């Protein structure tokens, strides 16, 4: 059954405009990090929980997310544009929302324009975070108006200009406005209603991979839909494997990873390529078909069994084709939900 899932967010922007500082601040101060002892592992992604408004005496908003995923946001913590484009070029729409970081004193710069093009091409919602508003000697109000005009020149219309792109002034260094940014992300997620079905076989994407001298080939997998389980057999980007172990962003061993959850996976025979798509339904169908072909060659089965085996093999072949089509359809639907809202 489909249910709302945490949004998956990437942060892009010009070099030195504060992407890393913002990610680090959120990681260190988020409720999710505190729940895990304040320690996060460098696995390429992490989750932050937005603090509810109940502590301030206001009524908390109701959410149809499960309690363990309520107010969670998944951040992809990878090296900016290159990783984003690499995943997108492989047809892996890994992100739901992009936060564009713009330094208040510099405004829109060449890499900012590049990031805007990547986001527009991916067809996902954008939020602009104007960073470094704590800098002395900067007229923030004047610079904000300048940045809004620069953004409009790139066909990015903020809400004040009649568009649908929120703009949030922040200081990633002091934390000013960061809570407002997280709340804005949640609001955008509520509007777009990103959903997943944990009862399905896992559908995901490799967001980083490497060889560890102790663990062997490992990869950070972002589960987009379904549930990845310990013991699942894998075939990702031509690389075989079996989930021997999974660890969340806090380094804790887990047996299950549901929609929007990033996990470090052990058990690959070699390093899978970044951006490769994980699709357990396709893997299961292919493994079953190979088993049936092997059985069909056996001389120990009778004619009736051979007929049934042939029929089952044809059915599995058809299933694999439909799985491929479904994979493509789901990506179109994900993108459509982002562009139609």
UniProtKB/TrEMBL annotation:
Cited Pfam families: EF-G_D2 (PF22042), GTP_EFTU (PF00009)
Molecular-function annotations in GO: ATP binding; GTP binding; GTPase activity; transferase activity; translation initiation factor activity
PROSITE patterns in the cross-refs: G_TR_2
Sequence ranges assigned to domain Tr-type G in this UniProt record: 4-199
Presence of the UniProt keyword ATP-binding in the record: no
Domain of life of the source: Bacteria
Cellular component per GO, a single term: cytoplasm
InterPro entries with a match to the protein in the record: CblAdoTrfase-like_sf, EF-G-like_DII, IF2_II, P-loop_NTPase, Small_GTP-bd, T_Tr_GTP-bd_dom, TIF_IF2, Transl_B-barrel_sf
Keywords, comma-separated and alphabetical: GTP-binding, Initiation factor, Nucleotide-binding, Protein biosynthesis
Family: Belongs to the TRAFAC class translation factor GTPase superfamily. Classic translation factor GTPase family. IF-2 subfamily.
PANTHER family: TR-TYPE G DOMAIN-CONTAINING PROTEIN (PTHR43381:SF5), TRANSLATION INITIATION FACTOR IF-2-RELATED (PTHR43381)
Protein name (record): Translation initiation factor IF-2
Native organism: Candidatus Daviesbacteria bacterium GW2011_GWA2_42_7
């Amino acid at each position: 059954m489909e249910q709302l899932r945490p949004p998956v967010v990437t942060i892009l922007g010009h070099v030195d405009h504060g992407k890393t500082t913002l990610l680090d601040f959120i990681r260190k101060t988020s409720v999710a990090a505190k729940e895990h002892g304040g320690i996060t592992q460098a696995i390429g992604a992490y989750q932050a929980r937005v603090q509810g408004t109940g502590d301030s005496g206001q009524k908390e908003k109701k959410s149809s997310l499960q309690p363990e995923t309520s107010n969670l946001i998944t951040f992809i913590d990878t090296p900016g544009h290159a990783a984003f484009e690499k995943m997108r070029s492989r047809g892996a729409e890994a992100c739901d929302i992009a936060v564009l970081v713009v330094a208040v004193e510099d405004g829109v710069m060449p890499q900012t324009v590049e990031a805007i093009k990547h986001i527009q091409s991916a067809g996902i919602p954008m939020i602009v975070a104007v960073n470094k508003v704590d800098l002395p000697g900067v007229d923030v109000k004047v610079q904000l108006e300048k940045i809004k005009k620069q953004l409009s020149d790139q066909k990015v219309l903020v809400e004040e200009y009649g568009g649908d792109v929120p703009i949030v002034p922040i200081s990633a260094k002091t934390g000013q406005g960061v809570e407002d940014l997280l709340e804005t992300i949640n609001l955008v997620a509520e509007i777009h209603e990103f959903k997943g079905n944990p009862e399905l076989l896992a559908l995901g994407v490799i967001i980083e991979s490497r060889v560890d001298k102790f663990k062997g080939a490992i990869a950070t997998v972002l589960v987009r839909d379904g549930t990845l389980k310990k013991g699942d057999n894998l075939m990702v980007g031509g690389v075989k494997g079996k989930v021997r172990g999974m660890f969340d962003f806090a380094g804790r061993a887990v047996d299950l990873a549901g929609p929007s959850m990033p996990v470090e996976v052990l058990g690959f025979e070699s390093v899978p390529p970044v951006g490769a798509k994980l699709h357990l339904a396709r893997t299961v169908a292919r493994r079953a078909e190979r088993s049936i072909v092997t059985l069909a060659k056996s001389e120990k089965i009778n004619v009736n069994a051979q007929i049934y085996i042939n029929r089952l093999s044809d059915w599995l072949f058809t299933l694999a084709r439909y799985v491929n089509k479904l994979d493509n359809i789901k990506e179109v639907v994900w993108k459509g939900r982002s562009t139609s809202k």
